[in-house]
Amino acid sequence: MTRWGNITTYYALAFIDAIILAGPILARRRRDRIILHYSSEMPADNSLQIRADLLARKMGVDSVRVYLADSQRLRRVNALQIGVGRTIIVVSDILIRGLTPSEQDAIMAHELAHAKRQHILKRNLVAYGYLLATIDLPLFSGYRSLPFSWTTALIQGGIVMFAIGMLFVPYLNAQFEVEADSLAAKVLGQGESLAGALTKLVQLYPVRKPMSGFWRRTHPSIVERVERLRAANKPARLT
Questions:
Q1: Which of 52, 86, 142, 223 is most buried, with most CB under 10 Å away?
Q2: What is the spatial distance between Cα 14 and Cα 46, in angstroms, rounded to a whole number?
Q3: What is the CA radius of gyration of the chain?
């Protein structure tokens, strides 16, 4: 037996970790199943699906399936990409009706950018990593052969990891949105279509409660994203 425990200790931690991870993983899979259940898969010859296929090939995404969400049942869904092994884009019927074809393409390019950069996988790995660190460090502190100073340090480390995760994961999400906007604009050759789509998205899905100063540092607002896209469209001034 060593100071850091025996093999039984690690098996116990691994078992606890598996149970902890099962919760959010199963919850996400259930959410995805519900979304797809109340959505209709676009036929292969549908204009939206054809344009999504063209964009996917242009962006180096293997394949994509487009689903139209029933806004009466999925009121909070506007557009999102789900799935890690396969790429599925879900857009609401309200959003599709409210956008021009070029704006629809911009939204799909944005969601395909998430798939291209594997943002879902990266976000999950980081979030689950912080979750396990937050829980495992305090659990390890309970091992009886550790000196008290180490026990205290492990508990404090868990608290610190929790605080860092609460700040870093939202910040990472914000960076992923900016990266997806940038890649979509690059593929389309302009950012005005996406800027227009985002502007209409706010009108169709108004934000009930404006973000406070703290959350604005970790969540880019639609206004900020639109300004960034339109600024990138402006020609550089000659000096």
A1: 52
A2: 47
A3: 22
